[in-house]
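Example for tutorial group B:
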């Protein structure tokens, strides 16, 4: 018995797993759909190579190697040490150069690339393989020593930063290499990097290396092999740098994915005036228009374009600069869009007139662009309607409902000379707020409740948290593909970039505008229009979005509202495929009207307690609570009845026959009484009763744990006259509205039911009152009596409860609290670290349904209930009803509808359509 086992346990002879995938020369081991293994960059480099596009050859080290690296305390998987040199030899052969060769050296880039795009979060090193010997060879071979030393100084700088960790030591210190570089330019009396000659660059290399020695206490590695392994380790290491971790949290990317490493033969955009580098989108990522969109710089390398070092030229200018390369690029644009059937974001380099492709990925876009591109591509027959529906992020639709500046107020601001400058319109919408020059300042001000515009010369990944906290982002440098633009768009921020007239002085804490006599400081107000690029001094009131103007305000004719028309088209398609019904949570007629305008098919939750706070109602409500006898309570309730009835009439009227679910009173009664003595005295005086009576009643109502206390149906069971009054108000309103010619379908919902007897008691009252009212008013209408399922016992005994109920609505806010045993109001201190730091829940369970826990309980309840009563109507009315992942779950477990806040209705409609389409 023991022997064969021991034999089986012996490790198989070490056959190293494949870690390396080739691309180049029209072939590749990988494909676009291998992102999990090769990262997005590696998979798409492979795909482009297969398409026959000009991709410099290279290889990808898989993400598994990175996962292994972290699982083994920074060790490489077996075999990698042999596989890398073999793959490198293949690159050498493909380009006819040798790594470390002093005559004709091969230089490579070592590039990070994870499964999901994380722009600028991890590291890349260019020109690797240079040392004092190979640089001389490169200079000789190209006859261009300036170029060779430009590569060398870039390499030492990048390697020194990324691998050797020479970074600014304080917040205010500039990049130490940049400081040396600035100093050199000053000494040589030149303005641009490109003006430095070969000698100056050679000196810089020596000075950079000396800086590394003194600051880091290490010598700069000269051996190309050593350089390569240092770079590979650093790229793996960059997966766990702080900004990458923050980015992953913000974008729900698991830490376990790891990054791939791409080692690729270098091509050079810095070889002279006929060389250059650029980035482009196959369509405009801000508006979605079908125009080639991008920018480039001649005589530049890699990051120069995005880093905002020099302001790049628009891609159209490339046609004059280099017509051949431009024509080729236009052809590739078509090839890529036809092949990927989507908008692509590309990186290219032109080396002495020859075009090379260095990256492509599906382009990030604003919500507006996403909608326009999806609709356009259906028209162009690139994608189907179903695909179009899948292409738009449901959450993004909220962006289309966002305000824009009030046109009159904006004109007035222009007339008053408050238009300071114009930059590039990088992220649409209107935002006004106070200036913060630093990310932590932006966070602090936002935490104090201010609206903040982050104003920077340029942003970097370090600014991520500050960008997330700000309402808008404004930069002085950088183009449409700069870090600020890319990340800002993705976050859905209002964003204006490359506003060159702005003169920002971080040290002085001032913002000046060239040619203007204006000095703004931190905390001063500015307003930015991310759809036009305009920057204003002071705030400007915003006006509702086009969609809201058409649907809610009815101040705009749809014929003049193109954004509205796109929105409406997409919504129409969504409605054609979704199975889930969509309702809204609305307590007032105007909310109901808004919900209906956004496409809600009914009200899923009308909370009656909000009505008690209204004009004239709080008095009788308090009388009711302070009542000492049933008679007194009835007297107070009869004063409330006409108010409630009028409220319900209003709701029924605007809902025009759509179903309306009304919940009977839910919160504990002490919420309606004042808690400080002065207010209690005032109340007593008003009601002409002794102060002590008020005080004693408040004390008597005090609860240690109100969430689990005397609330929900418990109130209506102990005080049946409350439920009776509410039922009467609902049904009399229904009768009146019905008689006036509008159909009504009231659904009375009893909250917090855990035991079937609770519902029986309450339903009996409701049904009796319904009969009485119909008889008294001489009119008949359909109505339902149902319950919320929001405590675990209700879910566990759903079959029993279903026998008495006409419908269930999952109250997932309370169901989450009671299932997790977490009070939402007390969860702040631990729930954030639970999600962010310890990964206990992948997302806040009060925002996105905890499917494994709360969801399991819902599933069980649905199964039990449907078995007992197949025609039972099932819905959800918690916050989760408008959150796309939760909507998908509700679809999967077979609910009939979801209900969410009015402005989330479009989101829910699209999410429901995507759920119906299933995974793609
Ligand atoms: P990121 O993911 O931050 O964009 P990349 O790996 O794409 O980093 O590289 C940074 C820059 O260097 C890009 O502009 C890219 O085009 C350029 N680059 C990368 N590899 C090469 C190469 N082999 N030859 C020339 N330029 C390169
Ligand atoms: Mg890139
Ligand atoms: Mg509840």
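The residue assignment follows.
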């Amino acid at each position: 018995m023991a022997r064969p086992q021991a034999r089986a346990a012996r490790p198989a002879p070490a056959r190293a797993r494949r870690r390396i995938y080739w691309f180049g020369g029209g072939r590749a081991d990988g494909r676009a759909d291998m992102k999990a293994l090769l990262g997005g960059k590696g998979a798409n480099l492979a795909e482009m190579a297969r398409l026959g596009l000009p991709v410099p050859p290279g290889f990808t080290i898989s993400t598994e190697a990175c996962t292994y690296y972290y699982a083994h305390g920074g060790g490489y998987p077996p075999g990698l040490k042999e596989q890398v040199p073999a793959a490198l030899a293949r690159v050498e052969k493909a380009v006819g150069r040798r790594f470390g060769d002093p005559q004709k050296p091969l230089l490579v880039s070592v590039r990070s690339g994870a499964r999901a795009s994380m722009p600028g979060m991890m590291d890349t090193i260019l020109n690797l393989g240079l040392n004092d010997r190979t640089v001389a060879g490169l200079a000789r071979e190209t006859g261009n020593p300036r170029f060779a030393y430009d590569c060398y100084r870039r390499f030492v700088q990048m390697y020194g930063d990324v691998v050797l960790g020479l970074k600014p030591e304080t917040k205010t210190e500039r990049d130490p290499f940049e400081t040396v570089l600035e100093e050199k330019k000053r000494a040589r009396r030149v303005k641009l990097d490109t003006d430095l000659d070969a000698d100056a660059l050679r000196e810089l290399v020596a000075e950079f290396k000396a800086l590394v020695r003194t600051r880091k206490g290490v010598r700069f590695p000269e051996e190309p092999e050593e350089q390569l392994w240092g770079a590979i380790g650093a790229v793996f290491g960059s997966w766990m740098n702080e900004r990458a971790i923050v980015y992953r949290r913000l974008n729900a990317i698991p830490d376990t994915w790891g990054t791939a490493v791409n080692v690729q033969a270098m091509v050079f955009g810095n070889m002279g005036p006929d060389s250059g580098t650029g980035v482009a989108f196959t369509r405009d990522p801000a508006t979605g228009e079908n125009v080639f969109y991008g920018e480039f710089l001649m005589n530049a390398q890699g990051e120069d374009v995005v880093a905002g070092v020099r302001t790049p030229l628009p891609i159209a200018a490339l046609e004059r600069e280099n017509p051949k390369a431009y024509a080729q690029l236009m052809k590739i644009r078509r090839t890529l869009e036809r092949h990927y059937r989507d908008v692509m974001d590309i990186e290219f380099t032109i080396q002495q007139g020859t075009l090379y492709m260095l990256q492509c990925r599906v382009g990030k876009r604003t919500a507006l662009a996403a909608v326009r591109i999806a609709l356009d591509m259906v028209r162009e027959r690139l994608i189907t309607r179903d695909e179009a529906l899948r292409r738009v992020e449901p959450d993004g639709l909220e962006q289309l409902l966002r305000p824009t500046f009030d046109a009159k107020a904006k004109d007035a601001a222009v007339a008053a000379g408050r238009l300071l400058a114009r930059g590039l319109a990088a992220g649409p919408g209107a935002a006004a707020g106070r200036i913060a020059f630093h990310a932590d300042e932006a966070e602090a001000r936002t935490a104090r409740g201010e609206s903040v515009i982050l104003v920077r010369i340029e942003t970097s990944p370090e600014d991520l948290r500050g960008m997330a906290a700000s309402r808008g982002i404004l930069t002085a440098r950088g183009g449409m593909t700069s870090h600020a633009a890319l990340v800002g768009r993705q976050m859905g921020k209002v964003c204006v970039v490359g506003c060159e007239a702005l003169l920002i002085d971080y040290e002085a804490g001032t913002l000046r505008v060239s040619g203007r006599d204006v000095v703004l400081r931190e905390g001063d107000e500015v307003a930015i229009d991310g759809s036009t690029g305009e920057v204003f001094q002071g705030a400007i009131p915003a006006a509702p979005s086009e969609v809201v103007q058409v649907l809610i305000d009815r101040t705009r004719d749809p014929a003049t509202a193109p954004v509205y028309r796109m929105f409406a088209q997409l919504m129409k398609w969504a409605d054609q495929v979704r199975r889930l019904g969509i309702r809204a949570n609305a307590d007032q007629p105007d909310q109901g009207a808004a919900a209906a305008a956004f496409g809600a098919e009914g009200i899923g939750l009308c909370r009656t307690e909000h009505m008690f706070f209204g004009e004239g109602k709080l008095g009788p409500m308090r009388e009711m609570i302070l009542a000492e006898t049933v008679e007194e309570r009835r007297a107070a309730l009869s004063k409330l009845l006409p108010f409630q009835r009028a409220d319900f009439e209003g709701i029924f009227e605007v809902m025009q026959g759509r179903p309306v679910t009304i919940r009977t009173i839910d919160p504990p009664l002490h919420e309606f009484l004042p808690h400080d003595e002065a207010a209690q005295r005032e109340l007593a005086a008003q009601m002409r009763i002794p102060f002590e009576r008020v005080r004693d009643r408040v004390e008597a109502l005090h609860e240690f744990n109100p969430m689990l206390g005397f609330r929900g149906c418990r109130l209506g069971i102990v005080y049946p006259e409350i439920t009776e009054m509410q039922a009467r108000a609902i049904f009399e309103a229904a009768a009146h509205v019905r008689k006036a010619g509008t159909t009504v379908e009231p659904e009375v919902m009893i909250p917090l039911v855990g035991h079937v007897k609770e519902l029986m008691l309450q339903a009996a009252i409701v049904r009796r009152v319904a009969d009485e009212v119909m008889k008294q008013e001489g009119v008949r209408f359909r109505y339902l009596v149902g319950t919320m399922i929001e405590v675990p016992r209700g879910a566990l005994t759903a079959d029993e409860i279903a026998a008495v109920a006409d419908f269930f609505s999952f109250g997932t806010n309370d169901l989450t609290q009671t299932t997790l045993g977490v009070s939402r109001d007390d969860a702040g201190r631990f729930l954030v670290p639970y999600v962010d730091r310890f990964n206990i829940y992948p997302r806040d369970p009060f925002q996105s349904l905890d499917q494994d826990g709360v969801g399991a309980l819902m599933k069980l309840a649905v199964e039990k209930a449907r078995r007992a009563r197949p025609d039972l109507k099932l819905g959800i009315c918690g916050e989760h009803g408008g959150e796309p992942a939760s909507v998908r779950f509700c679809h999967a477990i077979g609910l009939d509808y979801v209900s969410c806040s009015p402005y989330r209705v479009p989101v829910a409609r699209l999410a429901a359509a995507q759920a119906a389409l299933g995974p793609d």
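Residues 469 and 476 are 19 Å apart (CA to CA). Compare this with the pattern of hydrophobic and polar residues in the output above.
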